[in-house]
UniProtKB/TrEMBL annotation:
Coiled-coil segments: none
Species of origin: Delftia tsuruhatensis
UniProt family annotation: Belongs to the UPF0065 (bug) family.
The keyword Signal is annotated on this UniProt entry: yes
Cleaved signal peptide residues: 1-22
Protein name per Swiss-Prot or TrEMBL: Tripartite tricarboxylate transporter substrate binding protein
Amino acid sequence: MKKILNLIFGGIFLIAASLVHAAWPDRQITLVVPFPAGGGTDIVGRIIAKELAQRLRVNVVVENRPGASGNIGARQVSKARPDGYTLLICSTAQTISGALYTQAGYDVVNDLEAISTINDGPLVLITRPGLKLASVQDLIELARRSPGKLTYATPGYGSAGHMAAEALSLAADIRMLHIPYQGAAPMMSDLVSGQVDIAFDLLITAKQYVHQGKVNRVGVATRERSPLMPDWQTLSEQSPARLGNFNETSWNVLMAPKGTPAAIVNAINAQMKNILTDEKVQKKFMELGSIPLWKSVDSTKAFVSDDARKWRKVVSDAGIAKI
């Protein structure tokens, strides 16, 4: 009799749970952007919020929770109720944080649920005006002649540009001097004025400076040429033996608290596929210098996990001091 009652109550619970999931969404969804308003991730978040709201027929409100390289907002979402009403726009910064921060307060792989990739923005290796290099191979040879003297500028410690330069140093077996700045603007100012030698920057920003003759381009940091600038060579092309698999980008992924029901995660992923294959949305991303990128739930999980693993190895192999 007890077993029968347990089966009955268990069945009632499953039915109730399925009804709750079936009713989702029936109220406002909060989309947390862990960076300030007006930045690249914020713009991506607002595009996605608008599109999801139209398709799900509920309000999707963007909440900016900046601080600690995105860790404050990501930590908040990791501790939120896993009911599908709190989502996160995750970025490359979150997988880097897992490798670099000793007390981030969350684990991007174990405390968050990957839903869908969103976009992928290629990085470009550029140099100061007076440093003209035919290819990345010239840079490698220059760095080897004077170990530790070639300077690379970044918008901050632990930024995508910082980690890309360290990944390049490891792959090419060279040593360069890191000059971190408080943001991309002062970094570019000193690069243009010749105070530092090289930098990795987003293609959308770098191409403006290249076209104006303010900096020189070396190559795009992706395995294949970017459809955004198909005539620009990749670093992989220039040095296939050393950099054949070199692929450094700045991406965004939609995530939720761990334990969010699979039915909800799959439903959002399906909507993201519709959004990211919409020509109007694709055009918006291309104008931002980023490529729309949809992956299935399982592929997105693997994408985030692989990226987190990669940065842990880079931090360890390069001996980068943790924060």
